[in-house]
Amino acid sequence: MDCSLIRTLINRYCAGEENWVDNRTIYVGHREPPSGTEAYIPQRYPDNRIVSSKYTFWNFVPKNLFEQFRRIANFYFLIIFLVQGYEDWLRHKADNAMNQCPVHFIQHGKLVRKQSRKLRVGDIVMVKEDETFPCDLIFLSSSRGDGTCFVTTASLDGESSHKTYYAVQDTKAFHNEQDIDALHATIECEQPQPDLYKFAGRINVYHDRNEPIARPLGSENLLLRGATLKNTERIFGVAIYTGMETKMALNYQSKSQKRSAVEKSMNVFLIVYLCILISKAVINTTLKYVWQSDPFRDEPWYNQKTESERKRNLILRAFTDFLAFMVLFNYIIPVSMYVTVEMQKFLGSYFLTWDEEMFDEDTGEGPLVNTSDLNEELGQVEYVFTDKTGTLTENNMEFIECCIEGHVYIPHVICNGQILHDCTGIDMIDSSPGGSGKEREELFFQALCLCHTVQVKEDDNIDGLKKAQLSGRSCVYISSSPDEVALVEGIQRLGYTYLRLKDNFMEILNPKNDIERFELLEMLSFDSVRRRMSVIVRSVAGDIFLFCKGADSSIFPRVTEGKIDQIRSRVERNAVEGLRTLCVAYKKFTRKEYDSVCKLLQNAKLALHDREKKLAEAYEQIEKDLILLGATAVEDQLQEKAADTIEALQKAGIKVWVLTGDKMETAAATCYACKLFRRNTQLLELTTKKIEEQSLHDVLFDLSKTVLKHSGSLTRDNFSGLSTDMQDYGLIIDGAALSLIMKPREDGSSDNYREHFLEICRNCSAVLCCRMAPLQKAQIVKLIKLSKEHPITLAIGDGANDVSMILEAHVGIGITGKEGRQAARNSDYAIPKFKHLKKMLLVHGHFYYVRISELVQYFFYKNVCFIFPQFLYQFFCGFSQQPLYDTAYLTLYNISFTSLPILLYSLMEQHVSTEMLKREPSLYRDIAKNALLRWRVFIYWTFLGLFDAVVFFFGAYFLFDNTTVTSNGQMFGNWTFGTLVFTVLVFTVTLKLALDTHYWTWINHFVIWGSLLFYIIFSLLWGGIIWPFLNYQRMYYVFMQMLSSGPAWLGIILLITVSLLPDVLKKVLCRQLWPTATERTQIMSRHCRDHTSEFTPLASLKNPRYRSNDCSNSPARRSNSHSKKRMFTHWRGNDYSILPSIFGYSNNRCNSSARYCYSGSGLETSV
């Protein structure tokens, strides 16, 4: 076997330096010298093969990767690739951990522990307290005797409160493994579908050989994967949907990637620069062949072409030259800008999370950044869409009063004119009711104690739940609705206490300390369409009652008896005051009527198809011909500084819309309280009531005529609409009217109602959308987002019903409130309270946008300065693709010499102080509509870069032209020329950034002057040392030779000064002649600093337009200050001064022309 090749390879690659000799001895004809002469030393030389290729089969991959990753842009894409791969690996890891979780199965009457991935449909599973359900289960039985369990679904819909689920009636008595294993039953249900709140099925339970007993199954029997069992020792359930068929998995949806306006501008600018790059390459290619049309230039005597080069195709040669010029000029495309932008966004997001002013001590939480891609979008918001309950208000319900048969009751006792707090009793504002009134009063309190889904837990250790104390008895009320807990606790203070639900019997304690028991026969659950719920109960005496409670709009049309006018008047009065109201009614059934109702409900519940529709029809038949008992009023307190935040946003030019499911009067009162509507705001209604009186077309026409009448004659503020000299308009629209507007015209014409609606909204300072479903909230946001102005929208909410609009808006913000974490998890940012939105937008958003805008424009500017001299140089080198700069300078310009200063600038620059931005919200308007990235600004930066590049190149050119510039009379060469241009370039672009910096720290000084120092040291080392790893070193001694010349020093200083002068002059002139609001603020703040002495009062430094809210920010509890609070409101064309007292609420109409009204202690919205 011939091993010479292997030996040659080993000797070639493994032999050390000792085999190398300074000269070689060649033996002619390979003959060895005669013996006795010099020692024969065999030497190995390469064969005669010529290798011009860069790679071999073995080194292609490593060597090519090394070459590619010398480019920083490829490192960026490699990092993105690795990050995405790592993120997906983490998902695989999380999936495996979840799929391998232990689950308890029932097999042959025993508990068996298996992995979750082995669970199959039909398996019976046991789940213990605080465990998560491994799949979708039908609830069979629980450790609780009444067959119920408590579940939290925070991971599904964001609702953190406890929900009650019910076991199948025929299986709830099976409490051990043997009983469950003996169950013989079949389940028929619908195929998997993603709706979390809908489920239709039935279970057939077989007893011996008898016919099976069919029981309906609904959403109250379905335990969803991802939910957690609470306050129940254990439950048994049968798996019906597993794996990717569970409702949780079907709701997986990848959120659409949101792109900021800055990113879109960057892409457009990049296309412009790509066109410039192609144009440069085309121009140079064309001029090259024009230049070479002269034979002497094409083939000079010292560079004759070969025969093959002469025969080469002209088009192919031109295309090759075009590509060569593309490579030469490709540095004009700032690929490194994307790397810097990503770093700036990622690192900049930490400034938001580190903000101590946005940390909420009550919850122990601060702001959360779920995506940093939209930081700068916070500085461009034009519309804010906010939820009401839990966002503008605290979502902390408190029972205020109830009205029964026209008599008002509040939970206090009056004794000798004094209010005795914390006492149990009834204060009747009006005269005591008669005999029938006493009966209605008792029925009202019984209705509130029975018509709810509240559960009672006799335990002090329950997560975050409210506790009610009653004469030493500790009761914890659990409900998915805070309104229900507030009502039950309020009625408890009025003497009626709900005790428990046991064995399908509800027990209440009356004022006489007697326990009354009612059998729960049926429950007609609440839904957002009916907006009411009902229960059918049987008393001990055998009387069967239906108690119904719900919104006034759904109760009043269904009542036929009762003091309707008095109660309606009280409901409207409470709604105007901002209270949440519910109406209560009842109906008495005979035995025969109840049997028909029971049969109707049973048939609807057993239906597998269209069950929801059939149940709705059954409920509609049952809940009619009711007798009205009364109404309740519950208060949801306004959040701290909510009014101040909305006022600041409006001054910043941001339009605020409130989207809520509450009734119009309640929502309107809250809007007045939080200063969304003002005294001089004229309310325009686009509601169902208006449309019933007129057609939709006529209503829209009248509203358009009203708002356009003033906008045509007066100049309206296009941003906020705030003005004291003209009429402000506020629009109120409800969900039904919005559905008609969004519905296409029947005639199919393109002139639909949406444009008319948008035109009205544009001329209104604020809009209130009430009675909104979650999907309608998203429709509103999408409608505004896609309008012809394409404004930047922001949606903020705290509940699962706000997720749709949060995902639809350009920027979604979740509040980590009391309605779970669903909104916060699906949002782009999360904040503890609504008040933190002010600083997030007006300060952080402002800074984010200004910083990244400067970063983008600066990158394009410095790359134009960098490459345009290279373009000009081609005119002086015969278009030979000769580079002007050394390779090291080409590589390190964007990586080292100019990258850190702009990165630090984009992280730390504050052109205006934080306090000034909070004090002057109008500064937000200076950057609105992408002001800093408009074409005018982009063109200015580009032409500034072109001017500087021309100064660099021709300044150095004329300096070198026919001049001896060294002490010994030598001329500078082309590399010295390029180094001089590059030195002026680096110093100019760095000093340009220094001139733009307003906020100097030691970090800025270190990075800016350090980068210049690094360039000098690098150039000295790069050209002052012979590097052994370089095959050739064309920059040797070039930099030192340039610095040894006095004219070169003078030229560098002169060219830097000339380059920076136009930008400095432009800024000085514009600041003096046409200053922006920001520049005026900068001058004012600098003037204040210069003239402030130690004796100057701090209050005098504040802007006179700024009003401190320090004295009114603490939220007052309305129920604790009945006798001292006065609130001003405007409703339906009248001004009201509302003064609660111990004798009720009196509405005194005030003169609209009054300049002010007296205000005592109370809400921050008092006037």
TrEMBL record:
GO terms for molecular function: ATP binding; ATP hydrolysis activity; magnesium ion binding; phosphatidylserine floppase activity. One of its GO terms (cellular component) is recycling endosome. The active site is at D387. Residues 1109-1118 have a biased composition (Polar residues). Keywords: ATP-binding, Cell membrane, Endoplasmic reticulum, Endosome, Lipid transport, Magnesium, Membrane, Metal-binding, Nucleotide-binding, Phosphoprotein, Translocase, Transmembrane, Transmembrane helix, Transport. Its EC number is 7.6.2.1. The keyword Nucleotide-binding applies. Residues 824-1076 form the P-type ATPase C-terminal domain. It is an enzyme of class 7 (translocase). Its cofactor is Mg(2+). Residues 1105-1125 are annotated as: Disordered. Residues 42-84 form the P-type ATPase N-terminal domain. It is found in: Cell membrane; Early endosome; Endoplasmic reticulum membrane; Membrane. Component of a P4-ATPase flippase complex which consists of a catalytic alpha subunit ATP11A and an accessory beta subunit TMEM30A. This is Phospholipid-transporting ATPase. The lineage of its organism: Eukaryota, Metazoa, Chordata, Craniata, Vertebrata.
